[in-house]
Each structure stands twice: as C-alpha cells, then as structure tokens.
From TrEMBL:
InterPro entries: Gins51_C, GINS_A. Residues 1-21, 126-239 are annotated as: Disordered. Residues 1-113 form the GINS subunit domain. Residues 239-283 form the Gins51 C-terminal domain. Residues 156-165 have a biased composition (Pro residues). It comes from Natronorubrum bangense JCM 10635. Residues 1-18 have a biased composition (Basic and acidic residues). This is Uncharacterized protein. Pfam families: Gins51_C (PF22090), Sld5 (PF05916).
Length: 286
C-alpha cells in the first residue's frame, strides 16, 4: 500500500456510480501503511537535532496527512453508494454488494436488517398492531393510602351510641318515605328499587328516536358509482426509460407485469418509472 494506490482508488470511486471492487482487508492495509509512516517519522526525529526543521520529517508528515484525507474521502464516497444498495436490497430489488471490504460488508448486512425491521414496525403501526413501544404510567396504589396500618393505635373516641327512634306516632306519608329510604340503603330488603321510586311510566332508552343517516342511501350509491368510473379509466401517464440495473418482474399500476433487465428500453406508467429514476435504476429517454 502506498499513496499512489490510494489516489488511484479515490479517482475510480469518483468516476463510477457503482461501488468498485476492493479487497476485504483494504482499510486494514491502509491503517498499517499509515502506522509505518508514523514509526519512520519517529525514528528520523530521534536522529536529528531539530525535528521541526527536518525536510524528511516534513515529507513524512505531509504523506501521513494526505493518506488520511484520501482514505476518508474514499470511505465517504462509498458510504453513499452502500446505503443506496442496502435500500434496494431491503426493498427486494437487485443490489450490488460485491467487492465490499470486511467492514463495509458488516455494515451492509446490518442496514438491510434494520431497514426491513423498521418497515415491518411501521406497517404494524398502520395496521393497529401493538408493537409494545407504548408504556402505560403506573397507577397510584390507593389501597395503601386508605388501608389501616397494623401498627396504628385505636382511636380514643368511643363509638356514638345508637339513636333511639322518636317517640310518638309517625304520619302515614312520612312512614312510607322512611320505608322507601330504608329499602334503598339496605340493598332492596323492603322490595323497593330505584325504578319503583322514580316511576315506571317514564320514557326508556329503547323509545328514543333513531338518528337519521347522515347520507341518503341513493346519494351514497351515486357517489360510489362516480368513484368507480374515475378509478377505472384507462388514461395512465407513461414514460419511456432505459433500465440501468437488473430489477426483475414488477406489477405496474396498469395491472401489467413488466420484466426489467439492464439496458432494456421500456415504456412504463409514470408512477412506476419515477421511483426507478430516483433510485438511479433507470434513466428517462424523453
């Protein structure tokens, strides 16, 4: 590994839209090359009186800094391409994952798994499936606040003695009222229920008039018919493109199946052609 090889790799990476093939140990070799330069610079610095004015130390320093800048530019350029290929692979489309370094191959597999997992999570949310991400707050334990403690002392106040019923005759209307109240408090032991007290002749929920439908049936049918006529038309905007990557079979919005291979020239519905152009899997010809 040397600086000329690094610059050659950088030049090719800039010119190609796809990833160029690199050795799996490429970044490891670059790291060893820079470490050797740093060791050599330290040896020269130990042999000269003034390291800051030494031409050899200046040359080695420039080569080290240049190598770091070049390999960083290579990495950033390749990362943009790698993310795009991982997105295609996660979507089930043909992707180029050949010629990756060991570090890039691990990142590619991780990105594909994460994109697929995130897509499934989003679809579950749209379908109303509980993904377990929402955490309910803990309900306050009211029982602990109201329950008597085992160590609490009994109250000093004695219980109030039972009240004697008033002496004398009670009018008939007041006696009936007391009987009703006693029946409600004792859970109906006297045979009287709240419905009996309020009267059984009042209106019930079943007697409430039903709400009229918001849309007359005839209008709903008319609206459905107009929608079918609009969606069922044959007018589909089409675009002629040249395929730049092997894609395989897709189902167009016009319900037709298209088999797309590299260098194919085909006229597709605009809704299918636009995503391919945006992903650089196709290029427009008109």
């Amino acid at each position: 590994m040397n600086l000329d090889e690094l610059r050659s790799v950088q030049s090719k990476e800039r010119k190609k839209d796809s990833l160029q093939n690199l050795r799996p140990s490429f970044y490891q070799e670059v790291g060893e090359y820079i470490a050797e330069l740093e060791d050599e610079r330290e040896r020269v610095a130990d042999q000269v009186d003034d390291p800051f004015s030494s031409p050899e130390i200046g040359r080695l320093t420039d080569e080290i800094e240049t190598a770091k800048d070049v390999v960083e530019a290579i990495y950033e350029r390749r990362m943009g391409k790698l993310v795009k290929q991982a997105s295609l692979a996660a979507a089930g489309m043909a992707a180029n994952d050949e010629g990756l370094t060991a570090e890039e191959a691990d990142l590619f597999d991780d990105l594909v798994d994460r994109i697929g997992s995130n897509k499934s999570r989003v679809l579950d949310v749209l379908e109303g499936v509980d993904t377990g991400t929402h955490v309910e707050p803990d309900a306050p334990d009211i029982g602990d606040e109201t329950a008597p403690s085992a160590d609490s002392e009994p109250a000093d106040t004695p219980p109030a003695p039972p009240q004697e019923p008033p002496q004398g005759d009670i009018p008939a209307d007041e006696s009936d009222s007391l009987d009703v109240e006693a029946g409600l408090e004792s859970g109906g032991s006297s045979g009287v229920t709240p419905a009996d007290v309020m009267g059984g002749d009042g209106p019930s929920i079943d007697d409430a008039p039903a709400e009229p439908p918001s849309t007359p049936p005839d209008e709903a049918v008319a609206d459905a018919g107009s929608t079918d006529e609009t969606n069922g038309g044959d007018d589909v905007d089409r675009v002629t493109v040249r395929i730049t990557q092997d894609i395989g079979s897709i189902l167009g919005v016009d319900d037709r199946e298209y088999t797309l291979s590299t260098d194919d020239v085909v006229t597709l519905p605009a809704q299918n052609a636009t995503p391919l152009v945006e992903r650089e899997a196709a290029e427009p010809l008109e």
